Amino acid sequence: MNILAVESSCDETAVAIVRDGREVLTDCIASQVDLHRIYGGVVPEIASRKHMEAIYGLADQALAQANLTRREIDAVAVTYAPGLIGAVLVGVNFAKAAAMSMGKPLIPVHHIRGHIAANYLAYPELEPPFLCLVVSGGHTMFVDVRDYTQMRILGTTLDDAAGECFDKVARVLGMPYPGGAALDAMARRGDAGKYELPRSKSGENPYNMSFSGLKTAALNLIHHAQQVGEELDIPSLCACFTAAVSDTLVPRAVLALEETGYRKIAVAGGVAANSRIRADILAAAEKLGARVYMPPLKLCGDNGAMIGAQAYYEYLSGNVADMSLNAYATKSILGEAL
Questions:
Q1: What is the CATH number of the domain that holds 53?
Q2: What is the pLDDT of residues 82-108, one digit of tens each?
Q3: What distance in Å separates the CA atoms of residue 274 and residue 246, rounded to the nearest whole number?
Q4: Cβ contact 233:191 at 8 Å
Q5: Packing angle between helix 111-122 and helix 304-316, nearest 10 degrees?
Q6: How far is CA 154 from the centre of its chain?
Q7: Same domain for 176 and 253?
Q8: How do residues 185-206 score in pLDDT, each as one tens digit?
């Protein structure tokens, strides 16, 4: 089954063609990073306009690279939530038009389910059930992936997402957008024990997390140094901040593996590219005898292939939309509106 998949939830316009949920025939991406870098972050209105300019050409490019005709496309999939609402709307409306014009089924895909499915592309042998740590710019959660479309949220951040904190601290330090990648590179040269930063403590739900206190502590440290003229060891601050995020995530991942009895853990989302988090998860899982699944860096960020992968399983479970499909800025991975 050849699925034309569209992703436009933030600042990457992506169109891919995925066969049977596991084989990527082509994955075309038009990045807006250079455009938004001068603003220090994504400008929603600009992102939406650029999606409109790029999406039709990307679809034609995807078909050409896959050496397929429109008749050989069996379904059209699209990210319908969550994301920047104007950006998501561009993708949804394009996908609806494409599905209607070709007479093909329309498959709605939740963006975070897509990130989880990126692992299916990297690891053809991976099948549910397994634990997944989703860590991105807008979401941080532990998901019990019971089946391809049946999931349970074990815990989530109660405030800021880990990726948002990385980007905010990097921006205050004057690093270029996207800040998370720049901060990670800087942290590799630093001393992770030089500065004391807080870790999120377990509450009623031991899997829930909080990152706002960590972000505030880091920003206060930076601003205080600027006010008194103190020189900060930037690489070490980055290393300490990254260690604090990892120390919040990894023990909870270990607890989840122990309590679920799973011996498979996947990591998904843009922050899954962080070198410290990847290394710490691998080390902790090895002690438990658990297998770790991490998509290659090109599949950690937003892409159309991950949407096409999840769409195949959504289709098999009967999740097909009609032309009333709408876009949502916020929506639970379980389907309920937030």
A1: 3.30.420.40
A2: 999 999 999 999 999 999 999 999 999
A3: 10
A4: yes
A5: 100
A6: 18
A7: yes
A8: 999 999 999 999 999 887 889 9
Query: Per this entry, what is the length of the chain?
Result: 338
Alpha-carbon distance of 257 to 286, in angstroms, equals 12
Sorted by sequence, the CB contacts under 8 Å of residue 70 that are 6+ apart come out as 63, 102
Provide the domain limits for residue 57: 2-115+299-316
> Based on the number of CB atoms within 10 Å of its own CB, is 325 exposed (0-12), middle (13-18) or buried (19 or more)?
middle
Q: Encode 97-157 in three state secondary structure.
A: HHHHHHCCCEEEEEHHHHHHHHHHHHCCCCCCCEEEEEECCCCEEEEEECCCCCEEEEEEE
Q: Which residue(s) pair with 291 in the sheet?
A: 264
Is 90 in the same domain as 152?
no
Q: Which tokens belong to 170?
A: 């990097």
What b/e sequence results for 37-72 when a residue is b if at least 16 CB atoms lie within 10 Å of its CB, and e otherwise?
eeebebbeebbbebbbebbeebbeebbeebebeeee
> What are residue 141's phi and psi, to 5 degrees?
-160, 160
Strands (E) across the chain are located at: 2-7, 12-19, 23-31, 75-81, 106-110, 130-135, 140-145, 151-156, 264-268, 291-293
- pLDDT tens-digit series, residues 307-333: 999 999 999 999 999 999 999 999 999
Spatial separation of the C-alpha atoms in residues 238 and 183, rounded to whole Å: 6
Q: pTM of the entire structure? A: 0.93
Tell me, yes or no, whether 160 and 229 share the same domain: yes
In a shared domain, residues 256 and 110: no
SS3 253: helix
Angle between helices 162-172 and 179-187 (to 10 degrees): 80
